[in-house]
Amino acid sequence: MKRLMTRENAIRWAPLLVLIGLMILFTAINPAFLSQRNFARIAIAAAPALMVAIGVTFIIVMGSIDLSMEGTVGLTAVLFCFVFLATGGTLAAGAWVAVPVILLAGALIGLVNGLVHVKLRIPSFMASLAIGFVGTGAAVLITGGDIVKIDDDTFRALLTWRIAGFPLMVYVVIVMALIAWFIQSHTTLGRNFYAVGGGEELAHASGLNVRRVRILGFVLAGVFYAVAGILQVAKLGQAESVSGANFMFISITSVVVGGVALWGGIGGIWNTVVGVLIVNVINNGMVVIGLPDYLQDGMLGLLVIVAVVLSTDRRSISFVK
Amino acid sequence: MYQLKAVDKKFPGVHALKAVDFEIKRGEIVGLVGENGAGKSTLMKVIYGAYQPDGGTVSIDGKAVRFQNPRQAMEKGIGMVFQEQSLIPNLTVMENIFLGYERQFVRLGVINWKAMSEAAEKQLAKVKLDIDPATITSALSFAQRQLVELAKVLTLEERVDGDLVILLDEPTSVLAEDEVKMLFTIVRDLTKRASFIFVSHRMDEVMELSDRIYVMKDGAVVDVVARGAATVEQIQHKMVGRSVDREYYREQRQKPYDASKVLLEMDRVSLPGRIKDISLTLHAGEVLCLVGTEGAGREAILRTIYGMRTPVSGTLKIKGNEIRAFNPQAAVAAGVGYVPRERKIEGIVAGMNVYENMTLSQMGRYSRAGVLNVAAEKALARDWIGKLSIKAHSEFADCGNLSGGNQQKVVLSKWRSGGSDIMLLDHPTRGLDIGAKEDVYEMIRDMSDDGVGVILVADTLEEAIGLSHNIIVLKDGAIQQRFDCKPGAKPTLYDLLHYMI
């Protein structure tokens, strides 16, 4: 019994230990890593990625997968710029309206995603991948391939206004993570995600409306992708159809590195937060220790495999597909 | 010829096998019985090489052997027919039979299907199964699959010189009565090719088939009984150290039900397939048993009431209201609770803790505007852990780690705490040991006292007779006979069997 407990604990804390280990490693190689300025840099890089990763966490906990994030982030970022400019171009003039409008847009994209998956009975993998491409295509259509810029000091305060050294957007992300945690552990919807991921037939046999839960999961993910889209604009001051590029690899990698099981039911928001930090610390650390550009992508891939090996419990499953 | 002497096996905190002596002679069928946790499966794993003993010797024909893994044991002629169907459903029968041993049919990297098919036919003939070896396995019935597994193990005959020992782990659990008979005939016939070790929960089957029976309790062999040397009760007594008497099914607690209060009424319901014209009535406080062979329609009736199947004709009324939309949500709302046979698939979510499992079907009561009241959930779980003495360290315990009996208690409290007053129990005692079974019987009587109507598909006929107020016997999707089961005037096994087969 005692041994079992320590194993369970080891699994629970492994991702965090990996994170701390990486930080010690990079600090040992270059002490400049361990500075407040550098941490702020990591936090800014991680902020939109965390929103995407949290969105997809809900889906993965259900045992499905969502690959629409790049298209959704790109489209919501572009739409955000358009709505923002159309409603005055500055928060002071009423352009804040763009925020709820875009969150709604994200929810809508998620809804379409969920409906295609559930009503047409297309595997989530395929449905979301297709919707993601549709999203990217729509973004190209709207922008005509151009870059849309937002030059509003009040909006850019998300990046420029710092509290205790960290920009405002980091605090926004923390609040969003807390909201996600609340949804996960204190709402029926969150509980239902785990029930569907842990035993879909059982959830059905307990009288749960599994199809509805699945659709709502995709809606929720869409909202978080939209937040990521807005933060991406805040970070760069502009949007284009490829604003969502790379989020697929980063977010799903982070979720897995953090210890969320791809087959559903296991893990949660905190795993994802730690996972996103691990991936971003690796990214940042490689720059800080002066690894050449051309090696970084390859190293990231290798370190991710090592992190997955160290931080996930693969003992209970005999075959991995 | 195959012998274990003073074999010991320890796990952290458990002495699983204590100096076990075991022997099987050529052409013999040996039964192995014991409660859950008595050490049967550990012993089997030692025999077929999955575990290595910590002490004692294993010998074949007097020569000591040591297996590092099941493959080495197979090379010495020891084969295992697994309880869970171990065939890969999307492969053909012949591919399954020769899985891992295809090389004999390979020329220049290409499989000679014709040769494999012929060889497979030869194996299938051993178990008297007349099917095309190119059939996809999923198209077979459970009984046929069981025989294919047997045929697969029998390929050892050609590969190994020396004698075969074949372990049969609960081979009858998914078979109907006549299929069991057929399997037994084949096994008896095969004793000229191999010796068998037969493990089953069904005592009567073990008694019928075995030449000798090893009785295990707490990791030790407590007795070896020769054929006909003891009655079922005597062996059960040895297994548990106490006798299983009439009190077992809590007959003294069976009270008349409230005939004026009808909970559920089925009127000439027919389902797609064979099930036709099913009419039944369930009253408050009644235990109604559905009896029949596998596939007679017992489970289909439960699933219809629970809204998982939709009838083509006939009506179903729950508490006077006719059901029009058949889905589980509506059934749960009407107060129906369902305890399915496959506990692991449809009973509890492993990975979720006790309170999360308990409120799964009734989250609406424990939330406001979608926000859960976790404190109330925990209080509920603590309450029921106490009420049913569920052995879990706390309401945070992962249900996947609980024993089968305690999982079943969690499932029952899930429905009972939600106020379900129509309970559908499908094999609620399957795979439980005797102590846990008695707890379930006690709970069924408690439910009757509370005015709950129970429709039960029992694990054995004795259980059905012992627990029920009324019995409905089904055969091929139609009701054959109804029995009144007042205490003291219960029908006998023979009465029921007469209408079942």
Can you give a write-up of this model?
Chain A has helices at 2-29, 36-61, 69-86, 98-119, 124-143, 153-160, 168-186, 188-198, 200-205, 210-236, 247-257, 269-288, 293-311, and strands spanning 148-149, 162-163, 166-167, 238-239. Chain A is globular. By secondary structure, chain A is an all-alpha fold. Chain A is built from 13 helices and four strands. Chain A has a two-stranded antiparallel ribbon with strand order 1-4. By secondary structure, chain B is an alpha/beta fold. Chain B is 33% helix and 27% strand. Chain A binds chain B through residues 1, 3, 185-189, 191-192, 194-195, 198-199, 201-209, 265-266, and chain B through 12-13, 306, 308, 328-329, 331-333, 338, 340, 345-352, 356, 359-361, 363-364, 367, 370-372, 374, 414.
For the structure shown, list the relevant keywords.
heterodimer; A: 321 residues; mainly alpha; two-stranded antiparallel ribbon; B: 501 residues; alpha/beta; Rossmann fold; 6-stranded mixed sheet; 18 helices; globular
* Rg over alpha carbons of chain A: 20 Å
Total count of helical runs of at least 4 residues of chain B: 18
The chain-level structural class of chain B is alpha/beta
Largest interface by Cβ-Cβ < 8 Å: A-B, 24 and 31 residues
Query: On the 0-100 scale, what is the average pLDDT of chain B?
Result: 86
Strand content of chain B: 25-35%
The residue ranges of chain A in which pLDDT falls below 50 over 5 or more consecutive positions are none
Model regions low in confidence, pLDDT < 50 over at least 5 residues of chain B: none
Sheet/helix structural class of chain A? mainly alpha
The total number of structural domains of chain B is: 3
